[in-house]
């Protein structure tokens, strides 16, 4: 990976500079920040550590080691490369130097022990002058808690990962093997013993120096000694562990760097100790390195269990005679596969493989230059050795959703997920899974017209007859497109002309569904779920000219990491991909014969690898088309080490919290700390999970949470111009080992800064520190900010002129004021770190600039305007719920996403939060299930010789369990050559979302009014272009096809969004946040924001209700967003994405108010009501079940507001009624007239 | 025939244009702009008005281009976050080709100009 190596990290230089700086900074730093924190007996440990001067040396040595070490030891070239590139640059300062010798003068090293400082909440075990004895007690108690929570993450997060990681077996490997944690681990083993005599007895403040000094220096010695021995031990132990673990590449790849770093630790310790105390334990490093080498060669067993469908595989078995050929098709039998089988893998269970195919690293197959530079460019893609007749290292497992089951099923030693009770499986007769042989691929057969029914079925017995030729298809496609209009059931409807100006009720009563592409019904079944993958035009125009004529945007809307209930997960040593374009095999490829398949993106003919011939579902050989990869358009692969540039990183979370006066006043800290405490065990991750905290006001505070301390230790760095990490290795600590300390800290934090008077905010330096802290591993940084950054790098000025808020002319300052945050984000992105921003401000905070830190590092942005824990309880509640979701949701690290499409199409622009690394590759430091993306496409070459196009997104990520996985979605769409067909296939919601994205870009790069004009023009152009082809030539009427009838309404709604509206007072931050949401929200959520759903809820009935989890959810019809629908007798619910309003009419039935709201009449309903009481009445039950159903459908729990006529939320509610006129914007009808006028011009 | 300052300017421009041809291909923006501005000044000093006039539009374009660059603290013209967008990329490429053509033509023009000045003086 070029990024980590390419950004040389000046760490060594920086730390070399530390001593002089510290000295210099001591004086100015002292007075200002100190007073608040110093009043306790906490002592400043101002030592000038002898170790500092020697840092450069300690750097030199590890890098030397690295450069040769891996070369000798690593089994994979990849690793060695990686090892040198990646680690040598960033290896942090040896722990021991800093931990004990600690902080220079600029850093005040204080303990949380003192009660004065940390207030009552803290269960401070020591009082002043406590003895080591009591100290030990504290440790013991904390130690007992440390490991309790470990297994828990597995159960709670199993649901999508159904983790193949076996906790017991792996954790040992992970903990010792993983390079960056290893130092911690090494320490942790030692610490229990070391700290009691070392550490930080609370010395009476009167005389810190003498005593501290001595205790420190002894501690140094002991610690170094202790430390080096455990380090050695771990190294020596490795061979054993690896033998135990059957984990194939994982073992080897993890172990190697682990050893290196262990060695490195040793040598570092070594030097540190030499420097500090002259500890002469020279031999340690050498002795430990040799076991390391040995151990590596031992590794590489890979038992790869294969999977078989278990008994209850769907009952959709069909006789294989079901194949139909196409009588209409010309001479040859069109060879394509009919691949029908939905995502039915929920019942698969693994079967242990009979043999253990060792990947033979020299394969003929492919130079895996794979996914981007992300994968090593080596060739170990490993076909299985041909010795065993049955190629079998293959696993399918269910896609999650049954964490319990998975967990139970975990057997102790396999690396494959869900190795369920495998013995019965072996004997179980396999169900015929697929359907015998394929029929045609839809586009290629004319029968596609007859809604997919296969007319005749001469049974197929083999592939021999297949002789698929694309040129043949070429001729067919024209007849296809010509006929499609008359024959497919969907299309005539979508083309039926609608007179917009006359038809007043265009909004359907049920939520708008994505149009289904006009494909053969079998391909329809196989096609990707529209929630994950949608295209604005479900019929792709054949040429760019045709697209231009249609005046519609062509693009994709992606939600690639969506939470799925069913996802086939495939473990296979060979991931079958096209050799020229690297497309993953998918349901839309065609098998030419049994041994070859033709890529549907580049049309190259590829060989089917031997292993792929075996179908683990049916346990049959020679049916590659029934493999799950070919039966599902959304699959997930467990990637091999070829897809890694470095060992999978652990989950690392860093929280950067604003603790200035403003922040304390707003009171968010309590909520954040509370949520974290509650969800600490649910944070996704494995035993390597690490966590850290930074707080900042005008200085930056770090927290030493190293296991073994009795109290969290706060380190204050006031030198914000040149920020450094006081103790780099103990700031990010293992979650499980230091859990007690973390809990202590979280309990103490909210009260620590209660009386602060510091109003400044040094966000920039805090972020720089966070970057330094995270850069060795990558991970997630969560920044909580409450005001405009006012100090240090990245400081911002207020740019908003409140008088301009409702200006109709120019809206300025939509772009960033400085590129500091952007550069920081790019640096972070290069180090696989994503920055998530929570902005909780009451005043202008220049979100336009701040948002850059998340935009380009693939983070997410949350904004809570006028947040206050007591004055604004609904925001506080929202924050709490958002945090719960945020902390517990799935997360993928060090991800890249590549989008491939059929030759002839190309990607124009990406929208979303990411960094674009090359024209089709997005670099995503983190990926979360709530992130959506949009892609504009263009047609570069005519698509005349094909009748189908495919889009494939491949998201390669590291799961929180340290697994490398690839999630692949494939979407297949027909190509059409007539304009009418293009209009017939418009997905209006997708088009509007894409337009919104484009408009955001336009308003930032050009101006808001430009963007608004462009939006209006999009409507005008598309409808007038349709007018030219529609047969009805009424000049006076505004005719649109049914597929586009909502287009003007949605665009009008877009124009009335906070992001784009003019004339209505809109705060700049609100506007910018709305823009960020448009870029970042996936389509389903964005549509609710753009065009909320309005329901009448005072007369809910069970008519048309649906059943969800044994509950009856009423489905009231949608109302149009106009005040004319709001009768005073009714109650209405508006679902606007992140907020839900319930509006109650003045004359609303008292029964409803009593039954649902729990108040006797309208007048007694309070102004601010945010909860519905749980009442035991039918209407209450219905309302609540409807509401909770609405809430369940989205990731971020929306806030509920009950709105009465005179309540303050009324204006907010009414501004969502987009069909009505406001003082500054058209009503829907006026807008139509405006459009019509423009067309006639 | 004398080796005048104007001839020297042409000769220098000739050499530098050869460099510019490569810079236009490689998109080394800042050196390119500086070199171009430099020999524009030289021509100004040498009072070669026609040549200066031919170069003025490009100089003005360079200045405009640099003024309207994305917000960034360091020098540079291309924003790494947007450069991969197809329209911006296409624009930059087209710009590069146009400049390449311009520099090629001006290379021969300077050659001609140099000889002309040498011969005529």
TrEMBL record, chain B:
Family membership: Belongs to the cornichon family.
Protein name per Swiss-Prot or TrEMBL: Cornichon family AMPA receptor auxiliary protein 1
UniProt keyword annotations, A-Z: Membrane, Transmembrane, Transmembrane helix
Transmembrane annotation, as ranges: 7-29, 35-64, 100-119
Alphabetized SMART domains for the sequence: Cornichon
Compartment(s) where it occurs, according to its Swiss-Prot or TrEMBL record: Membrane
Location (main, coarse): membrane
Membrane topology: Multi-pass membrane protein
A cellular component term, taken from the record's GO annotations: membrane
GO terms, biological process: vesicle-mediated transport
Top-level division of the source organism's lineage: Eukaryota
């Amino acid at each position: 990976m070029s990024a980590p190596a390419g950004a040389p990290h000046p760490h060594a230089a920086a730390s070399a500079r530390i001593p002089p700086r510290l000295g210099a900074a001591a004086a100015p730093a002292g007075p200002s920040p100190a007073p608040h924190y110093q009043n306790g007996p906490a002592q400043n440990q101002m030592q000038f550590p002898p170790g500092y001067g020697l840092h450069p040396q300690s750097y030199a040595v590890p890098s030397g080691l690295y450069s040769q070490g891996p070369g000798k030891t690593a089994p994979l070239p990849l690793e060695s490369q990686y090892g040198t590139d990646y680690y040598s640059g960033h290896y942090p300062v040896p722990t021991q130097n800093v931990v004990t010798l600690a902080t220079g003068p600029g850093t005040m090293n204080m303990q949380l022990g003192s009660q004065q400082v940390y207030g009552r909440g803290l269960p401070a075990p020591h009082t002043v002058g406590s003895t080591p004895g009591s100290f030990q007690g504290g440790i013991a108690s904390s130690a007992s808690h440390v490991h309790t929570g470990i297994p828990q993450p597995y159960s709670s997060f199993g649901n999508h990962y159904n983790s193949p990681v076996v906790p017991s077996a792996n954790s040992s490997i992970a903990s010792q093997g993983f390079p960056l944690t290893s130092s911690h681990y090494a320490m942790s083993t030692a610490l229990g013993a070391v700290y009691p005599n070392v550490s930080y007895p609370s010395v009476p403040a009167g005389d810190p120096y003498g005593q501290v000094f001595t205790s420190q220096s002894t501690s140094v010695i002991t610690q170094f000694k202790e430390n080096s021995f455990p380090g050695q031990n771990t190294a020596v132990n490795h061979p054993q562990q690896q033998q135990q673990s059957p984990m194939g590449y994982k073992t080897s790849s993890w172990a190697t760097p682990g050893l290196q770093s262990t060695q490195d630790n040793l040598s570092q310790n070594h030097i540190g100790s030499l420097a500090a105390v002259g500890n002469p334990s020279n031999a340690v490093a050498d002795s430990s390195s040799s076991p390391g080498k040995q151990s590596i060669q031992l590794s590489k067993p890979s038992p790869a269990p294969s999977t078989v469908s278990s008994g209850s595989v769907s009952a959709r078995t069909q006789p294989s005679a079901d194949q139909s050929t196409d009588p209409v098709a010309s001479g040859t039998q069109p060879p394509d596969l009919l691949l029908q089988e939905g995502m039915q893998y929920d019942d698969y269970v693994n079967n242990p493989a009979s043999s253990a195919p060792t990947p033979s690293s020299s394969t003929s197959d492919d130079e895996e230059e794979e996914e981007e530079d992300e994968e090593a460019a080596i060739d170990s893609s490993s076909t299985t050795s041909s010795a065993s007749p049955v190629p079998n290292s293959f696993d399918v497992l269910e896609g999650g959703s049954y964490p319990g089951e998975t967990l139970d099923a975990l057997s102790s030693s396999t690396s494959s997920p869900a190795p369920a009770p495998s013995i019965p499986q072996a004997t179980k007769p396999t169900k015929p899974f697929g359907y015998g042989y394929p029929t045609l691929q839809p586009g290629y057969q004319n029968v596609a017209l007859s809604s997919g029914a296969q007319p005749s079925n001469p049974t197929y017995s083999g592939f021999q007859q297949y002789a698929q030729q694309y040129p043949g298809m070429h001729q067919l496609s024209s007849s296809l497109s010509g006929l499609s209009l008359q024959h497919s059931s969907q299309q005539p409807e979508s083309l039926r002309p609608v007179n917009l100006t006359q038809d007043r009720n265009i909004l359907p009563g049920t939520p708008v569904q994505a149009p289904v592409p006009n494909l053969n019904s079998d391909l329809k079944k196989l096609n990707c779920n529209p929630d994950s993958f949608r295209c604005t035009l479900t019929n792709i125009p054949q040429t760019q000219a045709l697209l231009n004529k249609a005046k519609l945007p062509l693009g994709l809307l992606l939600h690639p990491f969506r939470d799925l209930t069913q996802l086939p997960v495939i473990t296979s040593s060979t991931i079958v991909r096209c050799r020229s374009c690297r497309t993953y095999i998918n349901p839309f490829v065609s098998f030419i014969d049994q041994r070859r398949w033709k890529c549907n993106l580049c049309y190259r003919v590829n060989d089917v690898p031997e292993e792929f011939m075996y179908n683990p579902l049916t346990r049959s050989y020679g049916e590659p088309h029934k493999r799950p990869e070919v039966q599902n358009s959304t699959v997930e692969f467990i990637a091999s080490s070829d897809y890694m540039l470095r060992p999978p990183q652990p989950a690392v979370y860093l929280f950067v919290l604003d603790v200035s006066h403003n922040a304390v006043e707003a009171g968010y800290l309590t909520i954040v700390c509370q949520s974290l405490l509650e969800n600490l065990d649910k944070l996704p991750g494995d035993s390597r999970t690490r966590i850290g905290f930074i707080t900042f006001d005008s200085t930056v505070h770090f927290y030493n949470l190293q296991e073994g301390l009795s109290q969290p230790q706060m380190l204050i760095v006031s030198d914000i111009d040149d920020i450094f990490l006081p103790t780099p290795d103990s700031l990010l600590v293992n979650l499980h080992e230091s859990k007690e300390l973390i809990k202590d800290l979280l309990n103490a934090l909210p009260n620590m800064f209660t009386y602060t008077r510091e109003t400044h905010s040094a966000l920039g330096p805090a972020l720089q520190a966070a970057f330094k802290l995270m850069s060795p591993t990558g991970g997630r940084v969560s920044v909580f900010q409450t005001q405009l950054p006012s100090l240090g790098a990245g400081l911002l000025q207020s740019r908003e002129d409140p008088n301009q808020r409702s200006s109709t002319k120019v809206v300025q300052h939509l772009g960033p004021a400085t590129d500091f945050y952007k550069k920081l984000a790019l640096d972070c992105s290069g180090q696989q770190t994503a920055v998530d921003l929570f902005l909780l401000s009451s005043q202008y905070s220049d979100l336009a600039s701040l948002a850059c830190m998340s935009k380009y590092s693939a983070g997410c942005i949350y904004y809570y305007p006028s947040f206050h824990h007591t004055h604004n309880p609904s925001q506080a509640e929202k924050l709490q719920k958002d945090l719960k979701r945020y902390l517990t949701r799935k997360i993928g690290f060090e991800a890249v996403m590549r989008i491939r499409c059929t030759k002839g199409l190309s990607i124009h622009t990406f929208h979303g939060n990411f960094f674009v690394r090359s024209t089709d590759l997005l670099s995503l430091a983190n990926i979360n299930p709530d992130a959506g993306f949009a892609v504009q496409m263009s047609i570069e070459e005519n698509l005349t010789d094909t009748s189908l196009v495919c889009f494939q997104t491949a998201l390669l990520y590291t799961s929180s369990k340290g697994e490398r996985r690839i999630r692949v979605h494939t979407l297949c769409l027909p190509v059409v050559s007539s304009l009418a067909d293009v209009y017939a296939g418009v997905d209006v919601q997708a088009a509007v979302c894409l337009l919104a994205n484009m408009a955001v870009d336009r308003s930032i790069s050009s101006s808001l009014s430009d963007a608004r004009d462009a939006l209006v023009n999009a409507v005008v152009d598309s409808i007038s272009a349709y007018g030219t082809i529609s047969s009805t030539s009424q000049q006076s009427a505004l005719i649109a096809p049914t597929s586009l009838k909502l287009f003007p309404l949605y665009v009008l709604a877009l124009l009335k969004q906070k992001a784009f509206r003019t004339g209505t007072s809109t705060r700049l931050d609100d506007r910018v946040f709305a823009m960020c949401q448009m870029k970042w929200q996936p389509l389903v959520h964005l549509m609710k924001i753009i065009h909320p759903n309005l329901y009448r809820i005072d007369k809910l009935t069970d008519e048309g209700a649906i059943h969800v989890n044994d509950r009856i959810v009423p489905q009231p019809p949608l109302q149009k967003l106009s005040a004319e629908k709001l009768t005073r007798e009714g109650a209405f619910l508006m679902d606007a994405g992140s907020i839900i309003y319930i509006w109650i009419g003045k004359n609303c039935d008292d029964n409803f108010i009593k039954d649902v709201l729990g108040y006797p009449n309208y007048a007694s309903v309070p102004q601010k009501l945010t909860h519905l009481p749980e009442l035991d009445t039918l209407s209450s039950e219905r309302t609540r079940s409807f509401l909770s159903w609405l809430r369940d459908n989205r990731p971020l729990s929306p806030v509920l507001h009950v709105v009465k006529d005179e309540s303050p939320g009324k204006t907010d509610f009414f501004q969502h009624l987009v069909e009505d006129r406001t003082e500054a914007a058209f009503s829907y009808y006026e807008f139509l007239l405006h459009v019509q006028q423009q067309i006639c011009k | 025939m004398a080796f005048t300052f104007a001839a020297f300017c042409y000769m220098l421009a000739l050499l530098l244009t050869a460099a510019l041809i490569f810079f236009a291909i490689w998109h080394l923006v800042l050196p390119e702009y500086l070199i171009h501005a430099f020999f524009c000044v030289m021509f100004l000093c040498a009072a070669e008005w026609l040549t200066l006039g031919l170069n003025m539009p490009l100089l003005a374009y360079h200045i405009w281009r640099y003024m309207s660059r994305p917000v960034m603290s360091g020098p540079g013209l291309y924003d790494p976050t947007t450069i991969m967008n197809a329209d911006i990329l296409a624009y930059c490429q087209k710009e590069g080709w146009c400049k390449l053509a311009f520099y090629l033509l001006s290379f021969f023009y300077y050659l001609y100009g140099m000889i002309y000045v040498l011969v005529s003086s």
